[in-house]
Amino acid sequence: MSTLPTSDLLEVDQLLGDAERLLAETIRRFVTDQVLPEISSWYEAGVFPRELVPRLGELGLLGMHLDGYGCAGANALAYGVACRELEAADSGLRSFVSVQGSLAMFPIWRYGSAGQKQRWLPGMAKGELVGCFGLTESDAGSDPASMRTAARRQGSDWVLNGAKTWITNGGLADVAVVWARTEEGVRGFLVPRGTPGFRTYDIHRKHSMRASVTSELVFEDVRLPRDAVLPDVIGMRGPLSCLTEARYGIVWGAVGAARTCFETAVSYARTRTQFGRPIAGFQLTQRKLVEMCLELNKAALLAHRLGCLKDAGRLTPEQVSLGKLNNVREALAIAREARTILGANGISSEYPVMRHASNLESVLTYEGTSEVHTLLLGHAITGEKAFS
């Protein structure tokens, strides 16, 4: 019996170039050999192994869409494919790469001084140094402009006070890109680990993104030299542009998580027998698989289209919002439906479905909740702002 390649029924990968397809194969081999055998254990233990970081650097995945300073200078489609293949293994793996490249390296690359770029970017590209992005606060999640963290000038230095929370890579980071209020507006500061007054506390007891380090950053009279500030951006445009970069990766990453759940469900349905036959032969199971196939292939096509727009220099934040809103929502629906096909086995760590479903609950709300992306699109459609 022949079967269609239903996880790519529209042959979206045929739209990629040879380099992007080779990259996908390379990352699949990497995660198959070095991640998948251990990911369940890492997830259950709540750890992200630091030794993976230089391996990611060797593959050229850290800051891969940036030019110079040891970065790969890859196109947007290649970066998207990388995010897809990493999140097919686990959202925590894609989150690390996304935060390192799009949220920590990108603002230094885009808004930093020549000295800041040279100090941090080569080591971050190699995986010798880790960065994090400090924006979210306990009372300023979807409304980051209401942040309380502030920096004031004191002589030629800056003094930083405040706290950030739910910060991916925070406990691992050698440098934190921290956004704070100043008299001039919101500005970005580079805060190295070990700076007096700067502490991190890892957040435990998570039921999602367990193979990822999530932390609180605390700043108490942290004195920084004047060259710690990113010189080329003032205002919320800085952190929001970083989020747009990272959200693009999420659009692709969600496709990877959904693909794994779908392929797991198809394989299970073909081999699990009930009432004397594989459950793949039952109409309701087939309907579930068909609906999952539809949404997976549409999400893949959407991700590819946004990649083409980004490579053409035409991608807008609203288009990225559309992609994140749709693809994460549908990936989570696919994961949940796959769980029902696996029945009780669906909650076992023997299969990846429940892990992906739990992770996607976080992906659904971080870097812009579904509600926020809905209202951003509503503003684009109507011209009327539903929130300030």
UniProtKB/TrEMBL annotation:
Its cofactor is FAD. Belongs to the acyl-CoA dehydrogenase family. Pfam families: Acyl-CoA_dh_1, Acyl-CoA_dh_M, Acyl-CoA_dh_N. GO terms for biological process: fatty acid beta-oxidation using acyl-CoA dehydrogenase; fatty-acyl-CoA biosynthetic process. Residues 132-222 form the Acyl-CoA oxidase/dehydrogenase middle domain. Coiled coil: none annotated. Residues 235-380 form the Acyl-CoA dehydrogenase/oxidase C-terminal domain. Keywords: FAD, Flavoprotein, Oxidoreductase, Transit peptide. The keyword Membrane does not apply. InterPro entries: Acyl-CoA_DH_CS (IPR006089), Acyl-CoA_Oxase/DH_mid-dom (IPR006091), Acyl-CoA_Oxase/DH_mid-dom_sf (IPR046373), AcylCo_DH-like_C (IPR036250), AcylCo_DH/oxidase_C (IPR009075), AcylCoA_DH/ox_N (IPR013786), AcylCoA_DH/ox_N_sf (IPR037069), AcylCoA_DH/oxidase_NM_dom_sf (IPR009100). Pathway: Amino-acid metabolism; tryptophan metabolism; Amino-acid metabolism; lysine degradation. GO terms for molecular function: fatty-acyl-CoA binding; flavin adenine dinucleotide binding; glutaryl-CoA dehydrogenase activity. This is glutaryl-CoA dehydrogenase (ETF). Its EC number is 1.3.8.6. It catalyses: glutaryl-CoA + oxidized [electron-transfer flavoprotein] + 2 H(+) = (2E)-butenoyl-CoA + reduced [electron-transfer flavoprotein] + CO2.
